[in-house]
Amino acid sequence: MLLNSFNKKLPLIRGFTLTELMVSMGIVASIISIIVLRQDDYTEGVALQNQAADIGLSIREAQTYGISVKQFTPGSGEEFPPGYGVEFDITGAGSKSAYILFADRNGDGIYSTDWACTPSSSSECIEKPGLILGNQIDENGLCYVQTSTETCIGVGAVVITFVRPETNAIFKFYSTGGLLMSPTGVIGAKIKLISPGGLKKSVLIHSSGQVSIQ
Fold first, then answer.
1. Is pTM beyond 0.85 here?
2. Would you say 156 and 177 are in contact if contact means Cβ atoms under 8 Å apart?
3. Which end of the chain, N or C, is less surrounded by CB atoms within 10 Å?
4. Neighbours of 185 (CB within 10 A)
5. CA 165 vs CA 66, 85, 140, 175: distances in Å
6. In 3D, which of 178, 72, 68, 63 has the Cα closest to residue 123?
């Protein structure tokens, strides 16, 4: 009699039904999918931000070299190029995924060596940094910015140089056909980047020499 009374007081313990288990697993799977997707977006965004920062640093490097009278070959005791610069050119194969840091050895204000950046006694190329993790310069990602409208007018190539003692940026713009352009009222140049997933960042170089990431 006592045993029967004790058994009646025990709570009824039920497990998950198959339907409840499947619903719970579906909810967990959905949450994990959202987390993984957002993590991928976050990682891609950070990589693109770092890529834009790297380009900004290269431009700063050219500016520093240009105003600090850097030797082209350190320790050689000779050849101090009048300026240093960076070239972006999206008209050639593979050129959307790299750019050129160069020394303007002949003082003509442009990069005068081939895009391959082959070392030689006459080469102006210092290095050709490649864009990483599938990031690229956008299809219409090179442009000049004008004072009047602050709009970005697309071009095929941009050359940015710095000549001592000025910190100001000197721009040269080229059409997609390789012709030198002479736009007026230019206040800067912009390099637009795009990630494999379509995220976008821009590097804006002001005529004052200031570099900003947008």
1. no
2. yes
3. N
4. 10
5. 8, 14, 33, 29
6. 72
List phi, psi (to 5°) of 124. Answer: -95, -10
- Residue type at 128 in one-letter notation: K
Q: Give pLDDT tens digits for 157-191.
A: 999 999 988 999 999 999 999 999 999 899 999 99
Q: What's the rounded Cα separation, in Å, for the pair 103 and 209? A: 17
CA atoms of 190 and 86, how far apart (whole Å): 13
Most confident among 20-29, 55-64, 119-128 (mean pLDDT): 55-64
Which pair of tokens denotes residue 34? 């959202």
CA distance 141 to 127: 21
Half-sphere exposure of 190 (CA within 13 A, CB side): 21
Q: State pLDDT tens for residues 37-69.
A: 565 677 888 899 999 999 999 999 999 999 987
Which residues, at least 6 apart from 65, have a Cβ–Cβ distance to it below 8 Å? 84, 103, 162
